[in-house]
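Sequence, please.
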């Protein structure tokens, strides 16, 4: 029998597995963008993970309410698990809100602001929101993965200069986070 884990232990294990996954995805992105993999590794290996568990109650008038207002995540990558397969997550694509239907056992990966800055806007962050449902509750677990806090955040050197236009200046991550409020 596997040992019975406490909620804290399960959460820590989940967070650890999400970090392994985030590093794999970041490695693939580094290859796709031809970014120095060592630089990417050093920037993200000791990155800060955090978890948010979102619980949305059913709402009798869903058109008059919002579960989570439109935003982009401030991190590099968000890995989202839609727990009980209830619709709610939407992304804004070409100005239109598109539903992201839950698929059993699938995880959703979202790029956040840090990723957009790091790749100089080649992959944009994703504006998203969560709506509520008239009869069903909804539960989602978002794991946010950021870069190290003591690093200068800016576009990777090979992604600025021709043919790319520099879209972001480099700045310390603590300053970037404080600017977001
Ligand atoms: O509940 C969702 O599907 C979205 C949650 C979310 O965007 C967040 O926690 O940042
Ligand atoms: Fe979000």
């Amino acid at each position: 029998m596997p040992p019975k884990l406490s909620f804290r232990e399960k959460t820590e294990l989940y967070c650890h597995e999400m970090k392994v996954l985030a590093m794999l995805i970041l490695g693939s992105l580094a290859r796709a963008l031809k970014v120095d993999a060592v630089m990417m590794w050093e920037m993200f290996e000791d990155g800060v993970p955090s978890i948010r568990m979102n619980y949305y109650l059913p709402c009798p008038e869903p058109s008059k309410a919002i579960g989570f207002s439109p935003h982009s995540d401030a991190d590099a990558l968000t890995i989202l698990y839609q727990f009980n397969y209830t619709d709610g997550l939407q992304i804004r694509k070409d100005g239109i809100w598109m539903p992201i239907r839950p698929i059993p056992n699938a995880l959703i990966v979202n790029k956040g602001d840090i990723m957009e800055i790091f790749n100089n806007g080649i992959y944009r962050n994703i504006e998203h929101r969560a709506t509520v449902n008239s009869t069903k509750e909804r539960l989602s677990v978002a794991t946010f993965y950021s870069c190290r806090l003591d690093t200068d955040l800016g576009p990777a050197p090979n992604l600025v200069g021709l043919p790319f236009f520099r879209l972001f200046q480099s700045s310390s991550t603590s300053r970037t986070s404080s600017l977001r409020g």
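Residues 52, 54, 68, 73, 80, 88-89, 128, 130, 140, 142 surround 2-oxoglutaric acid (ligand 1) (CB under 6 Å).
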